[in-house]
């Protein structure tokens, strides 16, 4: 049996780091055998602590290599794993990042089994799907949901021009806070069907949420002011051109009242009041000719700026809708009225906390909401 402190400082550090990162319970146990032995524990004391036999402790103390974690695997598992040559692993890591359709497959994603079958054709080496998964995990791959992308539909030149325009508006709004306001505008629906999201649960178990379809929906339309992140969200029956006009009219009225409360005269609002820049998407009812003319005539302070096609990542209010849906995720509501109540409270009574520094995923590119 080795003497106390037989491990070099480098070996001890290597084993301690491996113990933190290792997923295999049996390998963690064998790492502990070395560390406890290094602290001067005898085989019996180690066996009692780990609740295993002294024979197991003695075997791994002799046959394990403190400089090679893979030497602490069972030999049967180790043998299968080493069927994968360095060339096989290199090819696996290359193929997993390539779309399956490139190889003529109809399926849209790689699984461990599909990768195993494809690589067997390529190399003649047959591994199980679990062995493929272990190799991928060892090389820092994880099996998670993919994200949506709209990049193939976007016009990069138009997006760049729009970005420059918005940055200029933001600069002017900071310099002339009383003369210019920027609002991000959009519509969103909240269904009675439970919104399913990932959640914490004990390993080996999975929590369930009710997934049956239920009729009922709450529709919202509103804006977010860039300067102070003020939200104005209205409950609507449906999104159409007249509804759009009526909600803009309400927004204009609220901003006008703010302006009057600062000591300004109501009759001067249209002449010297704040210009209201509305950033919104290209929904057809946003661009209906008669509604545009009505807005220009009756709401002259409002200026509409349309986003480039397929660019929701430039619309900051998307983060508000996303945060509201995350808040109510996995929760069931008894009826539409209950859903309406909590949505109104979240959106209009400042009960929804939003991390404005986070990046918003799954809406094209990423919104950097700072």
Q: In short, what is this structure?
A:
This protein is of the alpha/beta class.
Question: Can you put this structure into words, describing what you see?
Answer:
- The protein has 370 residues and is of the alpha/beta class.
- It folds into 3 domains: 9-73; 78-138, no CATH class; 152-201 and 209-368, Nucleotidyltransferase, domain 5, CATH 3.30.420.10.
- The protein is built from 14 helices and 7 strands.
- β4 (275-280), α12 (289-298) and β5 form a beta-alpha-beta unit.
- The model is unreliable at 76-81 and 361-370 (pLDDT under 50).
**At CATH's second level, what is the architecture of the largest domain?**
2-Layer Sandwich
- Provide the CATH topology of the largest domain: Nucleotidyltransferase, domain 5
* Cα radius of gyration in angstroms: 30 Å
Number of helices: 14
Low-pLDDT runs of 5+ residues are 76-81, 361-370
Domains (count): 3
Q: What's the CATH H-level homologous superfamily of the largest domain?
A: Ribonuclease H-like superfamily/Ribonuclease H
**Principal-axes shape call:** elongated
State the helicity in percent bands. 40-55%
Mean residue pLDDT = 87
Q: Oligomeric status of the shown chains? A: single chain
Instruction: Name the structural class.
Output: alpha/beta
Q: What is the number of strand segments?
A: 7
Could you tell me the strand content as a percent range? 5-15%
Topology (elements, then pairings):
Blueprint (H helix, E strand, L loop, with lengths): L8 H13 L3 H14 L4 H8 L3 H10 L11 H7 L4 H10 L16 H12 L5 H10 L17 H20 L4 E12 L25 E9 L5 E6 L4 H21 L7 H4 L2 E6 L8 H10 L3 E5 L11 H10 L8 H13 L10 E5 L1 E4 L2
Parallel strand pairs: 1-4, 4-5
Antiparallel strand pairs: 1-2, 2-3, 6-7
